[in-house]
């Protein structure tokens, strides 16, 4: 439902502000990814049955129903436009997120996949994920999605406690969730993920670990743990403000995360990213593209993308955001072929900051080879090798810099945000020493 790493991107911005440096404009052209003709594709379905109490995603509840045929046509048009603009020859993965994309018809999913395959190579074994809400996805419907081309499901289970599900405003019960999970595993063995939340108001460590143990008896090979983020403007935020429910306790949430990841490790799951766990190699290749700073196109209202728009004669990677509101977005797609509302060219340093902040979210970190794809002159050793602060983090056993590259230790992965507060300013410092920013008024 959200792109992985918004927090990391927030840290990038904060580190820049702290550095007090003027960020270069779109001048220069960051070296494009050598795989610049490949991309992942994210498709946003903006509608939900009702609003969950904690949710601040770009979603809408359509009171008068959804004109799905019109929405489908616009999604297809925008996918064609952006694939052409990006000069994308090969789509490695497709992710249908939302909102609640399992409310869309399987026909819409099939139409999108066909549209992609008309203009780019979509290998038969490409990962095609659909986010699923338990109440909108009985087994028969899941089978139809499978026939439409979906081969991986991500189930928004969130909790196995009915009182918590009610607090979250979810439309499903724990029983619904387990039933959907069982049906999903029968249809997509080894390719089902579940989301479990932690840090809810009033939640206690012991019962939450009990939920996780229960989930381990039912789940497939992929699991994501997400800490509740209490967002201003949500119903849950208001409930906490007026004292109707207790405020979430961040220290308790940190304890849950620590105990949860240890439990998952014991159960044979590899924590391959801050929030994501897989066994038997069931990693999400789509999300891996985000963490590796690969190119991705975002199609649909409010979708985000990052790619080089070759078709417009550009050589610079851009962060793109599509228009949020579905009716406005559709009008723009009908008029212009796409509903891109915002384009932000990423300069070389910004791209490197993302490579650092996103790459360190994974257990592999940033290999020397990966870094060289984005920066051929400054090595990881040049940037971090001589830093006393980085040495201290290594001595504390939180960070490793060696022949493989730069990565967090198991302990470091749990405190990545604090490591980035050291690493990002260091990168900026070394970068500006090499190529000082223009002096204002100079
Ligand atoms: S189903 Fe997902 S996107 Fe929709 S309101 Fe709930 S959390 Fe938000």
UniProtKB/TrEMBL annotation:
Gene3D superfamilies: Aldolase class I. Keywords: 4Fe-4S, Chaperone, Heme, Iron, Iron-sulfur, Metal-binding, Mitochondrion, S-adenosyl-L-methionine, Transit peptide. Pfam families: HemN_C, Radical_SAM. Residues 33-270 form the Radical SAM core domain. It is found in: Mitochondrion. GO terms for biological process: porphyrin-containing compound biosynthetic process. SMART domains: Elp3 (SM00729). One of its GO terms (molecular function) is 4 iron, 4 sulfur cluster binding. GO terms for cellular component: mitochondrion. Its main location: mitochondrion. CDD domains: Radical_SAM. Signal peptide: none annotated. Belongs to the anaerobic coproporphyrinogen-III oxidase family. HemW subfamily. May be a heme chaperone, appears to bind heme. Homologous bacterial proteins do not have oxygen-independent coproporphyrinogen-III oxidase activity. Binds 1 [4Fe-4S] cluster. The cluster is coordinated with 3 cysteines and an exchangeable S-adenosyl-L-methionine. This is Radical S-adenosyl methionine domain-containing protein. It comes from Cavia porcellus (Guinea pig).
């Amino acid at each position: 439902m959200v792109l992985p790493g918004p927090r990391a991107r927030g840290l990038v911005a904060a580190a820049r502000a702290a550095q007090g440096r003027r960020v270069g404009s779109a001048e220069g052209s960051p070296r494009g990814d050598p795989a610049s003709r490949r991309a992942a594709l994210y498709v946003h379905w903006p509608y939900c049955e009702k609003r969950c109490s904690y949710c601040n995603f770009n979603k809408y509840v359509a009171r008068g129903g959804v004109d799905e045929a019109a929405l489908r046509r616009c999604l297809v048009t925008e996918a064609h436009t952006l694939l052409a603009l990006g000069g994308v020859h090969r789509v490695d993965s497709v992710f249908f997120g939302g909102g609640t994309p399992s409310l869309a018809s399987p026909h819409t999913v099939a139409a999108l996949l066909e549209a992609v395959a008309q203009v780019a190579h979509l290998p038969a074994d490409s990962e095609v994920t659909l986010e699923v809400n338990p109440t909108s996805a009985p087994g028969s419907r899941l089978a139809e999605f499978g026939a439409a081309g979906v081969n991986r499901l991500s189930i928004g289970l969130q909790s196995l406690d009915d009182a918590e599900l009610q607090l979250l405003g979810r439309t499903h019960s724990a029983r619904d969730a387990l039933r959907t999970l069982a049906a999903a595993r029968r249809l997509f063995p080894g390719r089902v993920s579940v989301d479990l939340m932690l840090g809810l108001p009033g939640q206690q460590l012991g019962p939450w670990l009990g939920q996780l143990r229960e989930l381990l008896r039912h789940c497939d090979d992929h699991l994501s743990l997400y800490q509740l983020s209490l967002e201003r403007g949500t119903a849950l935020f208001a409930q906490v403000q007026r004292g109707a429910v207790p405020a979430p306790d961040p220290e308790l949430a940190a304890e849950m995360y620590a105990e949860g990841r240890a439990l998952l490790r014991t159960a044979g799951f590899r924590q391959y990213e801050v929030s994501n766990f897989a066994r038997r190699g069931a990693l999400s290749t789509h999300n891996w593209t985000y963490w590796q700073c690969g190119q991705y196109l975002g199609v649909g209202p409010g979708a985000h993308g990052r790619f080089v728009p070759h078709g417009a004669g550009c050589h610079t990677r851009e962060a793109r955001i599509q228009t949020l509101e579905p009716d406005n977005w559709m009008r723009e797609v009908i008029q212009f072929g796409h509903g891109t509302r915002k384009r932000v060219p990423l300069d070389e340093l910004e791209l490197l900051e993302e490579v650092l902040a996103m790459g360190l979210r994974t257990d592999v970190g940033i290999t020397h080879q990966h870094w060289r794809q984005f920066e051929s002159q400054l090595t990881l050793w040049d940037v971090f090798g001589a830093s006393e602060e980085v040495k201290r983090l290594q001595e504390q056993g939180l960070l490793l810099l060696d022949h493989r590259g730069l990565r967090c230790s198991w302990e470091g992965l749990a405190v990545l945000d604090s490591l980035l507060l050291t690493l990002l300013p260091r990168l900026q410092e070394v970068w500006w020493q090499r190529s000082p920013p223009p002096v204002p008024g100079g």
